[in-house]
Amino acid sequence: MIDFVGKKQWFFLISEILIVAGIISLAVFGLKPGTDFAGGTSMTLHFSPPVEQSQLREEMAELGYDKATIQNAGEGNFIIHIGEITSGEASELAEKLGAELDSQVKISDYYLASPTVGAETARNAGIAVIIAAVAMLFYIVWAFRRMPSPFRWGTCAVIALVHDVFIIVGIFSILGWLAGVEIDALFITGLLAVVGYSINNTVVIFDRIRENVSRHISPDFAVTVNSSIVETLGRSLNTSLTTLFVILALFLFGGATIHYFVLVLLLGVIIGTYSSVCISSQLLVVWEKREWRALLPFVRRTT
Amino acid sequence: MRSRNIYLLIFILALFGFALWSIVPLDRNVFGREGLRLGLDLAGGSYLVYQADVSGIELGTEDEIMKGVKDVIERRINALGITESTVQIQRHDGDRNIVIQIPGIADIEKAKEMVGLFTVLEFREQDAEGNWVPATGTVNGEELTLSSRYFKENTEVTVDQLGSPLLIFEMDETGAQLFKQISTRLLGKQLAIFLGDEPLRGEDGNIIAPEVKSVIEDRGQIEQLRSYAEAQELSRLLNAGRIDVPLGRWVDGAFEPSVPLYERTVDATLGQDSIQKSIMAAVIGITLLLVFMILYYRLPGLVACLSLGIYGVVLLAIFKLVPVTLTLPGLAGFILSLGMAVDANVLIFERMKEELRGGRSLGAAAETGFNRAWTAIRDSNITTFIACLILFWLGGTLGAFMVRGFALTLFIGVALSMFTAIVITRTFLRLIVGSQVVTNLAAYGVKK
Question: Are residues A94 and A125 in the same domain?
Fold first, then answer.
């Protein structure tokens, strides 16, 4: 039997490294807000024949849009985020670009959000994430109300949830810095879907722990938890695998518009499965046994 | 027990048949105009939101006036030949927004121009050649056109003794002088009502042009309107046209007319492309999924694939019958829900395998598998429901309106997946196990 509980220090260490890296990136580079949050205009330009991204960037800079975010969406499509311009100005810009780059240009997606709309969307997105975390906490406390200290179960599940969110946000902060990836309302959507999914996995394992505790399969809580993880491992992996099949297909073939949305889901399913199997139940054991030092692995060796 | 399963099977087949019939009538295209309702990111079209400057409107009358403004905009857009547009009033933190959705390949620039125009109705008379020209008069040495500006805002509809609708109006001072001159001149002739360069038309398509029967000063009435609804709309238009309600947006306390607060215009070919790509992704992802399920879980896996097929068809039927407007994130939600729908089956099959390994008989293992897995299925899906509800709320805010499609499809998908696993997979499996056609445990993925 694989010892998932015994290796908990290692799992905690891996997660802590990922989270700290993400927080550093967030503190230094922050997140790049997309049109949904920052306001402004974004549009998808279709060039036929296709042009190079570097050419487009140069031409945009010459026309005065040197701060534009340009994302290559493949097949001659580029997604551009710039300060606010009206649809009329956008058509003029597209025409000029076409003339300079000697290519037929079409605006296939024009999108303008006023800064007030963006600020409000950003605020609501933040509220949504917080409400989600609190609602999940209450739900799990309720679902495990017959166990001793149900609040502990809820807290551990929500820590795993926050863990997932931090790692994904951290990765997108790094992607924003490396590849100019912006976050938008769909990013938050993906994040919340992932939150639901990850908690879902955690609940299945917790459910098994609950069952095994009432069957008294072992006097040692750590052994009970480990058996529960192992017993549900087939399910955890297979469900994630079947979900990953469809997400991966969407990621590879689903088109540029939802590319990063699907990436959130992809990362979320992987990290969510990891945190369910390797973090949330282990936290329960740590709490039960008061082994708080396990949370700061390998610190005691140096002190 | 046996007969109950047969009834369930008949129910499932009937449900499947109905679902299939409702999504693929032979003469219709599944993704076409008559098929699933598509959001503008898939069908192409425009989504415009304007804030209304209601500062010039008397307190308490805003709602009535806004209804009039909505009517005015609807009429203008329809006049451009754009028939499937929708115009809605949205109240938001004390603001009143006008939300306009225009599908397909419409001329958006033209539509926006029309939306930005004033909401004033103009009265016109016929000249010698029969052309409609503005009906004018002279007040205080100034030549003025009779328009809804000079109406008091208390225009209302009643019925006369015979039960036909009657529109009663009052004029302000200037209006009274103006109307007196014009009605004196046009006694026995017709006055038409124009919005921009388009005459108002009744439900039958004819121009609304009441005959002047008497000299009108500060009050009057319009008779012989064809229906009560038509009279009411005219009344709203007149009330809304009394003052201009500029549409635009507020920026730092200043009003910018004609600039939308929010605009999204998607080309129809981009939407078509998105649909094709999503279908391709779905086909590849689902094929992988089915192959995996059959290879790993054998016979139960095959059963799960069957129920997944029914699941997909029923889900599409629900989308169509509710109807749910499918957006690109919504399509992703649909495909994701297919992946997640397998989850309940996996939970049950894993449980069943455990029970079989524990030495239970096939029938007992199947039943225990279902019963034991149920709490996990229920508890775990509720978290996804919570996430969907929060997303649905978030999707109500402007910048995130695409989010709602995802939340809705995922919610319906997960709810249906519970039903699929508990009812459909269970019935199939019971019938197979009960009929004892396949008793080799290897077929259930258990190695002896």
Answer: no
